[in-house]
Amino acid sequence: MQGQMGEATIREFEESSIRREDPGHVGRFKTKINKSLTVFQVATKINNLLPGGAWKPKNCFSRTRLAVIIPYRDREFHLTLLLSVLHPLLQRQMIDYRIFVIEQVPVRMRAHFNYDPFKDTLIPCREAGLPFKKGDILHIVDQTDLNWWQARREGDKNMRAGLIPGKQLQERKEAMRRTVGTLDGGLYRERENKGIRSSTMNGSLDSRKARKTKKIMYQSENSSDFDNAEIITYEEVEKYYPESGRYRPIVLIGPPGAGRNELKRRLITSNPEHFSATIPHTSRSKKPSEVDGKEYYFVSRTEMDRRIAERRFVEYGEYKGNLYGTSIESITSALNAGKVCVLTPHPQALKMLRSAELKPYVIFIKPPSIERLRDTRLVPTTKGNTDNGMIQKTFSDEELHEMILNASKIEENYSHFFDKTIVNDELTTVFTELCAAVYRIEHEPQWVPISWVR
Length: 454
Description:
Mean pLDDT: 80
Number of helices: 13
Shape: elongated
Low-confidence stretches: 1-6, 8-21, 182-229, 381-391
Structural class: alpha/beta
CATH architecture of the largest domain: 3-Layer(aba) Sandwich
Largest sheet: 6 strands, antiparallel
Number of strands: 23
Distance between the termini: 53 Å
Radius of gyration: 31 Å
Strand order of the largest sheet: 7-6-5-4-11-23
CATH topology of the largest domain: Rossmann fold
CATH class of the largest domain: Alpha Beta
Oligomer: single chain
Strand content: 15-25%
């Protein structure tokens, strides 16, 4: 450029490009901020602002062209304040500029552990920490620091973001706790889950009383998800909005005796046109009085084995030499018919059920305290039903303790799959709560794993 213009021409160009003597361009910068304005209102008050957030001086040629990139995520108030100051500041310097506001995709995580910053010895500042409970939805504001994220609780009117442990840090902390045998503050699945593995067809976790042997069907290369120790800290989620005529399956999980089968029966009986159970497959021979596709789908043993190998069953088992199983097709056929499919599978079946195709809503039916169980279950109570009517069953004290133990094992190993927990204290009250939950599922958006909606 110097070869074409010469030093004198360059000096004249510099002096004419910006009028340095203008008193409005020197001295202390003063601006008035109206905190009640919106971003749109701020833009309308900027003189000569061009479309796209651009501005350039009219009476001179700016030697500088500037692009300002502002990362933005759900903080309109702060963005308004920044633009109220930034526009007049840049215009005062006679800069040809354009402001780009890049809206970042919000990140929301479901927490799978409880956190109290005042009990955390690693946090840089306990007062800056954000306490939360297991199951809370956290709006992640900043993940720049891998060890300490900034977040706030979803729906919390307090705009202040606080520090929470990042995923990597929390996983390291939980791994250290695992080595000393503690499970507090996170979810740790032991490698040996013998009680969980020895399941029965009716959902019992005690193999000593098993009459039917249930097996949960997994590929060998994927079964390590339940065999190996696993730490669950956060799960990225997004809202799923109900689709008209397409319902999510209701999955009731719980130990035997907790009442999930009775709740399923009541739910289907309350509206058979809306709720539906799955029809299982079996390899046994059809009885003369049975109709294929009503009580069971009857297939050959060879066909059943083939479908099992093709991973088409969420769970299956063998009883008296015959195979029984719940297929994925039986669930999807109920959903395609516009019905709400209600299931009571073994907890390990959740691995197959929790998919973007099915989007199940999992409810853990939890027994109450042992004292309350003694008050309500030591007397004859409804255990199940048959074609001839209800079965009355009295639980022994040993069975009540086993129910509590099994519930604890299920909760310890599978609670990160639960969307809701209902304590079955009194059956009528619990059924009302279940119906209310089902109504919300069908009419209100719910948080689901982000892979289910993207």
